[in-house]
Design goal:
The structure holds two protein chains of two kinds. Chain A contains 18 helices and twelve strands. Chain A is an alpha+beta fold. Chain A folds into three domains: 127 residues, no CATH class; 115 residues, no CATH class; 169 residues, no CATH class. A five-stranded antiparallel β-sheet of chain A has the order 1-2-4-5-3, with helices on both faces. A five-stranded antiparallel β-sheet of chain A has the order 6-7-9-10-8, sandwiched between helices. Chain A has a two-stranded antiparallel sheet with strand order 11-12. The N and C termini of chain A lie far apart (89 Å). Chain B is mostly helical. Chain B is 75% helix and 0% strand. In chain B, 49% of the residues are buried. The chains are: A alpha+beta, B mainly alpha.
Amino acid sequence: MKKDEKENKNQDQETVEIPISKDIDHNLNKIKEILSDCDDVIYREFSVGKKQNYRFAIIYIDGLTDKKLVSEYVLEALMHEGRDEVPNPRMVGTNLYKLSKEGNIPITEVEDLKCLKKSIDAVLIGETIVLVDGFKEILMISSRGWPLRSITEPVTESVARGPRDGFNETSKVNTSLIRRRIRDPRLKLKYKQIGTKSKTDIAIMYLDKVVNNELLKEVNKRLDDISIDAILESSFIEQLIEDNWKSPFPQLQSTERPDRVAAAIYEGKIAIVVDNTPFVLILPATWNALLQSAEDYYDRWVGAFIVRLVRYLAIPLSLLLPAFYIAVTTYHPGILPTQLVLYLAATRINVPFPAFIEAFIMEITLEILRESGTRISGPIGTTIGIVGGLVIGEAAVQAGIVSPFMIIIVALTTISSFALPNFAIASGLRFCRFIIMLLATVLGLYGIVLGLVIIIAHLCSLKSFGIPYMEPYSNIISSFRDFKDSIIRVPQKFMRLRPEYLNIKNRVRMSSINEIDSTRNESVGDQKDDRGK
Amino acid sequence: MIGGNDKITKGQNAGLVIGSVLGVGILSLPKDLADIAGPDGVFLLIIATIIIILLVIVHSKIALKFPGKTLVEIMNDTLPKPIALMFIFIFIFFYLGAAASVVRVFSEGIKMFMLSRTPLEVIIMTMLLTNVYIVRQGIEPIARIVQIVLPLAIIPFFLISLALIPDLKMTNMLPLFQIGIKEVFQGLKVAAYSFIGTEIILISTAYVKDTKNALKYNILSTVFLGFIYIFIFIIVVTQFGIKQTADLLWPTLFLMKTVDIPGAFLENVEGIFITIWTLIALQGLAVILIQESIVISKALKLKESNFISMPLLPVIYVLAVFPENIAEVYDYMNIFSNYLGTVVALGIPLVLFIVLLFKKKGTKKA
């Protein structure tokens, strides 16, 4: 183990502190040596000046760089325009570098680099570096430009009403989408690079004067503690900074929607934008926040109110329904109405398995079906759906392996789990569902309650960055106000304050209801007066 | 960590009081009260509630005087060492007994109504193991758990009770004002015993974030408890009549057998009620065990308290299995609440209170 670590460190430190030489060939050779066997790196050497006596070189990576920009504003400017004018030779001599930087390259973002390692890093990001013979500085030109996926509607969180833009894989685009929604100097954005090899850009965004500083400090600390070679997706970060890695439930929220991130930042939360993924992390996340969807706020309150209730109904259904079926058919048929019990018994008369085996067969079949369906989309996916859903379901009932009632239960369970807006919570509940099914097999209804209490206990012990996960449900009296946006959703007028549980500084987000009403009444009164005149 | 969320809020503290009292107290009510006082039990419950409010004030005053300190530290600070030690032992025994009786009685209920062929030992063991997991989380998570579990239990109970209203015979509550002085005192004792559990204030207040108005919240929780008990008493007595109530083992449980919701999916709501029953049992047990863990760990000056319920598990199990049948359990419980309960809930707090009153004068002079 230790040997490996040492080797890794040596590898990482290889490129540290290589001074830039005045000799351009020396520099080029060094870079070529470090970037050996990297055939996508382009080296372009050229000469500038009327007499072609100043040697330049640019280096960039093919595919990461906006070639048009480089050729038009760097090469064109230096090679052609530099030839047109006759510069004062005295001025040029020692100022060549400064002249080209300040007078000849018409590009918005340029930077001096004093170290070869940084220059190589810049190339790897997608920038272009310009080497000038006889100078100890390297000029970095911001020329990042690679094929982007256009801003499309997010697949996982589509809405009927609301903005249709979603994040893509470039963090700069993503942060700009957020910035567009928060035009306030208090929106802060801090960059970090995580991953010793991947050097992934990570942006921390928050609203200053609203966010809890302790929270911010804690987030920074946890991010700095990460030591990993590569961050490929924001879930790497999520899993490395969450409070309890053993839990089946997510403790950070991830979303593809910029409007959700903006709303969270306005609430006083912190967003972490990771490069190369459209999923942005929001923290702290609570159970309540994870079960909110963006549309809840765009819909009128009555609709949102009902949707919320339905969603909270879907939780027990997706968690307990198969277990309940097992418990009732095996232990307590008495609690069902007589007619239903008779019907149930009649449908199960041909089924050769006890209820729990029946339930497990169907649940596992469905999991396999779901897994094969999610990997393959398009026509084959549809075929899988038809084969799985219709053929297996129908055939299993016809063959008498499972009862039709079981099919209904399984279908309802699956639909319910898809009704939850957060996929991670749904899969956490799916895991718990199987455990509760086992408990129901052994101990009936009592087992279900035991399982339920254990899950509640676990959820209550969870914290997301110091915020209890089950707020406000686990603190009914003291944070009663937070119920305005929980299992119910009150009209917009009453959501005057930011949530209490985040312990933020500035809680007012809307002028009071009375003020709104009174101004409106006044304006109505004015109109009447006008009419009177 | 962030903004002191690690602490219990006042509301959660009040919830703990309710959970603690319901877990133990609901077992005997309203059978014993109906047996002794008849319909007049309602008045006794009201009087008992008032007495308990006074007691809760005493509890809260003691606890609030020592911010951040639990019962053990308070006693070590105010009482001579041997007496403090003795009191701590009494508390430890009390919690052991309370845990054992809660486990046993609730398990009997579960066995009788749900799992008639499952051995009682299995039910007791699973209940205890579940609780060990819960208690390992610590007192703050338990305060949160109680906040979720209690509404899950209480709200369905009230909703189901609504279905009973057409069947109730209010004449069963008559005639009132029939009891003598002796029965009044006996009945008061029974009514007051159903409030055992308020002494959790002496422990939980140490973990409360902001103790301002904590007393008000505690009193409100007692009023709420009184309301629940009176509600249950009236419903049970009007449904069954005095005689039958006194004869039934668990009138509240049997009550649910009689509920018939017209056209409902569930023919009898027993299943739901036994779920409520289990929920209350589990949270009540968790509250007792965490108090026990805290008292023991503070007495032994341990840093971590959450694991202590594990070694206690066999002890509680043996105590719970010890009585041969449910009648015997209730015999033990009567003795238990008569002596230990009185000492724990009334005796020791009063001693502390009086000592504190005198000490206060002493310090003022000095």
